[in-house]
Each structure stands twice: as C-alpha cells, then as structure tokens.
Amino acid sequence: MKNFLNTIRGRILASLVLGILLAWVFSEVAFLILRDSSDRAPRNVELVIPAGTAERVAAGQPVPAIPANLTFVLGDVLTVKNQDTASHQLGPLWIPAGASASLSMDRENNFAYECTFQTTKYFGLDVRPRVTTLTRIQALTLAGPPMGALLFVYSFVLWPLRQNKKTKPAQPN
To answer: pTM here?
Structure first.
C-alpha cells in the first residue's frame, strides 16, 4: 500500500476517493444543520382569513392569525379560506366572503402579491425548489473532484515522493 501511495497514479486515485468521501460527509452535515422547510414533498397549505379581518385592516391593526409571508416548495397549493364577511383579494385570487380559492405554486420565485387582508397591502410568497436526492448528488459531484485535486496537491507538500534507492554492492578499496 505504501508503494502504491508513492506513485502519482496511486495518489490521484487515493486523493479522489478521499475527496469524494470528505465532500459527502461535509455535504450531509451541512444539509442536516441547515435543513429548512423546503426539504419536504409538496403539500396543500391552508391560509384562513378570520372573521373581522376587514374591520381590523381598515382600522390599521394587523391580523395576528395571518403571517406577513409564507414559504413554499414547488408543487405546493395555497388554499385561502375566507371566514370574513367581506371579500378579499390575494394577487390573482378573488375570495368572496365564506368561500375559498386556490393558487398553485408552479414557479420558483419570491412573489409580493397585492392583498386586502394585510395592513401593508401586500403578502409575500417565497416559492423555493425542493431539495431532492438528485440535488444532494449534484452537490457531491461538484465538490468531490475539486476536493480530491486539492488533496492531491497538498499530499506532495505533506508527503513528498520518495526515490527508490537501489543499493550498489560495496566496492573494495
């Protein structure tokens, strides 16, 4: 094994394997630490506009039951249920009193829709791509080979190649 690592080919192969292994470990640790709401399958998200919302907004008071913005993944469906006595609007949706409307999240973007149930008159929708197994594999393939190349270069600094010394028989004087 020591002779194999003392060759250029051996170091390239060992560095590439070690680089991919280290990139996988770092990638998975980062994925687990930074995990967020976009690491899930698409689902139906329900937003309820409670009774009395129109009066609170007209008085300039925020509605505590309604967040200022929501985060979605591609494929989610937002269903807005209006329990208020007044009709409300959220971007392209018109929601009559006592009714509901749906909006499919089919494009990745950060939307700022005009709305009538917020005192700010807008509602933020952040649509993110899903983190899939393919995304994680792409991260590994993008990080592994460069990490291996760096390890290959650094290996020469830490462990220089040794020359094979062939000893000559001692010459008599």
So the answer is: 0.64
